[in-house]
Amino acid sequence: MNLPPESFEREDPEDDSLFYSVPRLCTHLDPAAIDAVRALFQEALPVQGRILDLMSSWRSHLPEGVPEDRHVVGLGLNRVEMEENPQLNEFVVHDINRCRALPFGDGEFDAAICVVSIQYVVHPGQLFREVGRILRNGGPFIVVFSHRCFPTKAVRIWCMTGNLEHGEIVRTYFRDSECFGPVEVLDRSPSEQPGDPVYAVIGSRAES
Known about the structure:
With about 210 residues, this protein is α/β, with parallel strands linked by helices. The protein has helices at about 15-20, 30-45, 80-85, 125-135, 155-160, 165-175; strands at about 50-55, 70-75, 90-95, 110-115, 140-145, 180-185, 200-205. Helix 4 packs across helix 6 (about 165-175).
């Protein structure tokens, strides 16, 4: 899938730090969907080590009772939201659409997650290469999405396609970064419907 540059244009191209300057202390998934995300993380994340919560907010949706030897670092745009997140050990205010290099060292993390935010990334190739750089060999990167978004801030290709296409788009981000091994696209939507669907795309850092 070759995506032209205009695929990543947005209705609102203004600085993201302005749009996200007001804290939004609300969840973007319903309770059943949140439980599905937690169950996925319980299965797919390492029990211990350093985890990067990319594009973080006031909730990370990690399983309850995070082990003491797990260290979670949030990276997002709103300081107040991340200060309210009880599962973050530390956080960094950083705009990935403006500053494409992540402020971490090579191989610094054992895993990374991105929950219901991938649709806002305007430079996914650079972001996925950066995530590959900061992950240790074999470390999973789990991208979770649903059917909700801020449409003025989501990239054009996301707004023009549906959930099945979204999974293939994110798979393309993984593949084109050339940092990850085989990639899985999963439907983890709760059985109780109607409700928010849950999809995940997972790849592990390839041996370097």
